[in-house]
Design brief:
Length: about 80
């Protein structure tokens, strides 16, 4: 999976995607969004073009299908908020 592999997202957002507030990496599982509305399209934009010079832009580093895969994965994490396992 790209999130845990060559995408390197886990490095800042942690393996469980809960984020690291010490470095400003948000929790991707809580349904609270700093940018956009939490839709896959908004997540794609954040991943593809980066945010505030902190989260890098992945366009040109990952393929567009890979960026889409990450955005759908993160969207799925946020949709589990409040659900019983």
């Amino acid at each position: 999976m790209i999130f845990h592999g060559n995408g390197g997202c886990y490095d800042c957002h942690t393996a469980d995607a809960k984020g690291d507030s010490a470095i400003g990496a948000p929790d991707l599982t809580d349904g609270i969004w700093l940018y956009g509305d939490g839709s896959p399209a908004a997540m794609f934009e954040s991943i593809a073009y980066g945010r505030q010079g902190i989260c890098p832009a992945w366009t040109g580093k990952l393929s567009l299908p890979a960026i889409r895969e990450i955005s759908i994965f993160v969207y799925s994490l946020s949709q589990n908020v409040g659900r019983k396992k």
